[in-house]
From TrEMBL, chains A, B:
One function term, GO molecular function aspect: oxidoreductase activity
Gene3D superfamilies: 3.30.390.30, FAD/NAD(P)-binding domain
InterPro entries: Class-I_Pyr_Nuc-Dis_Oxidored, FAD/NAD-bd_sf, FAD/NAD-binding_dom, FAD/NAD-linked_Rdtase_dimer_sf, Pyr_nuc-diS_OxRdtase, Pyr_nucl-diS_OxRdtase_dimer
Domain of life: Bacteria
EC number(s) reported in the record: 1.-.-.-
Name by which UniProt lists this protein: NAD(P)/FAD-dependent oxidoreductase
Record-stated family: Belongs to the class-I pyridine nucleotide-disulfide oxidoreductase family.
Organism: Nocardia aurea
SUPFAM superfamilies in the record: FAD/NAD(P)-binding domain, FAD/NAD-linked reductases, dimerisation (C-terminal) domain
Length: 480, 480
């Protein structure tokens, strides 16, 4: 190996320019003359901006809005115009041009270094042969990649991953989605809305494993009502695609795919035009040089300050999906903010013992919205998780059926549940299901993070006639 | 006067069966064998259910949803079909049949007494010659009626009040709305959406006087963009309608109306097909017999337990608009709940010193949504009100321009402002403007009522990509 060119110096080097890494870099150098670089091998903005949250929501929103319009007397609505929806999605992913994100970096005095970053020692990062040295900190924010199971014939069939499904250019007539999590449930929603006949094969007995059971059931019912064939306790065991070709991201990769599915009772065969694999994620650390800093391959374990455990010297951090705390963009960004604040404080010799310097919300105060039809919005602990954690738990739940929901659309159907810590009379968790309940979630997040007692929530009056009146109904039901 | 028949006995008598009165009655007798009666001279369910909140929102929602659909590529939407919208409105007001509300009362063991209730002495209510005696309490919940100014010719022109505008059966081609408050702003919104050419004459220099100035401006801009002619500093000084006839609620009351409008510079004349008066409210106490219990005519002043000031014996209460605390349905219902709890506790000899027994939110924690286009959602104190109250105030504000808002619709435009008490680092007020921001409000209400410090709100992470991400932007902007 030739010796690399002399190292470039930055105070902070972030490997991986997704939202978590961007936040870490910006916060680490804010209001200072520190310097930062983001090393990115694909697009600055990351998975979320180009291949996940943004394109998926751009594909989902028109379908949700159309459904609302169609259930409102006085409006006549046609759609979806698939081409128009895909064009709007293309605009949201900037046709995979990251120049606006690069401009953001420049405006925040962050250099963008193109290439694959690899840890080369303490405070050292190598980017395709070029050495960068960090004055203060290195932050790993490389995220994860789609996991392709070892099912015979599956890899050779060139299945779609989430990236193809969010960036589809052709809507397959018939599609099999393998998986039962958020990606599978949302992809099934938009593919069906865009006209595909969709089968979802779920290994377990429910969609969206971690959420309250009623939410899982309502999402499955919603998919089935949209014509999706949801099969539980089923897994592909053999895949065959004789006519196969990589025609590019989001394009159908050849001829029909034959998939043998097995459940408890036997096997069945389906033929589809594309297969989407949404079967978990793998940390994007294979090329990261973790061994060079004494870490095993895989996810990077961190403490609440986002510092890598087992690495002395307080210089290595990991934020976002790669630390395996919470695989959600907004929590990765949150970690990035906390991490950046920690780096800044340490660089300036300030104490880091305040609440600002701990990603405390990661553990039991995580909000998540699943943009299916109906939507699922959940924050904190499910009843099951709360009981498992040893809390004395009370719950209250009811259908969301208030004046505001009836007015919103004629087919409004929703459900809400609160999980209450009886010892403190505060909320541990909240789960809502229904159209656009994602926008109802932040109230619950504030109540949980703020530890607002239910006796106080009694005086937080929902405006009438808004959908949020269901909060009043929940508190009344709790009172009995 | 003949002596009335022997008095019927109830533990609690409520005069006025709107939402506030219904809540007071239900809470006063809950989980007890106490008895209650609601005295109602019109429809059980009250102004809100038949002539205000419900029909107005039924008229507004289709227009809002149509606008959203029209700004979503991939959807082609026609509308509004006026007949369909009016039919849906009729369903929401149950064609002015209150049997479902009467059934609710029966299910809650509340008798409905038809007629005009009048206070006849301590714990005595006369209903059209029949005497009712209250064992514990009488609650006045008669609300308010529309105020018609003394403008020459105005009464003779049989103008529409809010009742006609919410229950319109014919859409006037040309309509003048007199007033600049919530009723005027909302009526202008739906009348324009249903095809009327609308002029709004506002005496002052802004719509929606009490809200943050930016909210007033955005609502005015929204109306103007919808083709409404909003005129400030203008008042009608003479009205003439030669061909006039009372053709029924929500029907055009005769031929064209000529209205002379005066502003600082002079007078102008407009001709319209109907005139809507939305110029304030008058307490519905004229027939209430307030003198019999030693009270002056007008609004009934109450303390935080909703007890009428100046009436000894703790037996007379007033809830809802008639007590002039907050003229909003949800706050009237809130008062009803508190009042009912107070009555129940006193009846059972329990102490009433807990927070449950005070309508504490009435003073500075009141949420309100104005369902214009854009919507206005506000809770707590405006900056001006906070400064006037002597707080050391900081503010932060910005346009609502996050991924979630861009995804929601292509023309999303919104703005948000927080008013912060610098002494405690908590929120005093929040105001949001934009499409459907009404559903964003409860988060702010919980933060304010819960007195959650901003340092804690930092860990209440909005889910991505929801519109509620603007909370993060506000906190980041505050941090600077």
């Amino acid at each position: 190996m030739n010796s690399p060119v002399p190292a470039a110096e930055y105070d902070v080097i972030v490997i991986g320019g997704g939202p978590a890494g961007e936040n870490a870099a910006a916060y680490a150098i804010a209001n200072s003359d520190r310097t930062a670089a983001i090393v990115e091998r694909e697009l600055v903005g990351g998975e979320c901006s180009y291949w996940a949250c943004i394109p998926s929501k751009a594909l989902l929103r028109p379908g949700h809005l159309l459904a609302a319009a169609r259930h409102m007397p006085g409006i006549t609505a046609d759609g979806l115009d698939v081409e128009a929806v895909l064009r709007r999605r293309d605009e949201f992913v900037h046709d995979h041009d990251d120049s606006s994100q690069v401009a953001w970096a420049r405006d925040n005095r962050i250099d963008v270094v193109r290439g694959t970053g690899r840890l080369a020692g303490e405070r050292l990062v190598e980017v395709d042969g070029r050495l960068l040295r960090a004055g203060h900190a290195v932050v790993v924010a490389t995220g994860t990649g789609a996991n392709i199971p070892d099912t015979p014939g599956l890899r050779d069939a060139l299945p779609w991953t989430s990236r193809d499904a969010t960036n589809l250019h052709e809507v397959p007539d018939r599609v099999l989605i393998v998986g039962g999590g958020v990606v599978a449930s949302e992809a099934a929603t938009w593919l069906a809305a865009l006209g595909a006949r969709v089968i979802v094969s779920v290994r377990g007995d429910a969609l969206l494993g971690a959420v309250e059971p009623f939410a899982r059931e309502r999402v499955a019912e919603g998919l089935m009502a949209a014509g999706v064939d949801v099969r539980f306790g089923v897994a592909p065991v053999r895949v065959s695609r004789p006519d196969v070709a990589d025609t590019g991201e989001g394009r159908i990769h050849g001829g029909p795919v034959t998939v043998e599915l097995r459940d408890k009772t036997g096997t069945s065969v389906v033929e589809v035009d594309e297969i989407v694999v949404a079967a978990g994620r793998t940390p994007a650390t294979a090329d990261l040089g973790l061994a060079a800093v004494g870490l095993p391959d895989g996810y990077i374990e961190v403490d609440d300050r986002l510092g890598a455990r087992g690495v002395p010297g307080d210089w290595l951090y990991a934020v976002g999906d790669v630390n395996h705390r919470v695989a959600l963009t907004h929590m990765g960004k949150y970690q990035g903010r906390v991490c950046g604040d920690v780096i800044a404080a340490r660089a300036e010799g300030r104490p880091i013992d305040g609440p600002r310097f701990a990603a405390s919300a990661d553990h039991a105060q995580v909000p998540q919205v699943v943009f299916t039809a109906p939507e699922v919005a959940a924050v904190g602990l499910s009843e099951e998780a709360a009981r498992r954690a040893g809390y004395a738990v009370d719950t209250v739940e009811l259908d969301i059926a208030v004046a505001g929901s009836s007015l919103a659309r004629d087919d409004y159907a929703g459900h809400a549940k609160l999980v209450i810590d009886t010892a403190t009379d505060t909320l541990l968790g909240a789960t809502f299901v229904g159209p656009e309940v994602g926008e109802q979630l932040h109230a619950a997040t504030i109540a949980i993070v703020g530890a607002v007692p239910l006796a106080t929530l009694w005086h937080a009056v929902p405006a009438f006639p808004a959908v949020s009146e269901f909060w009043l109904r929940l508190l009344e039901a709790r009172r009995g």
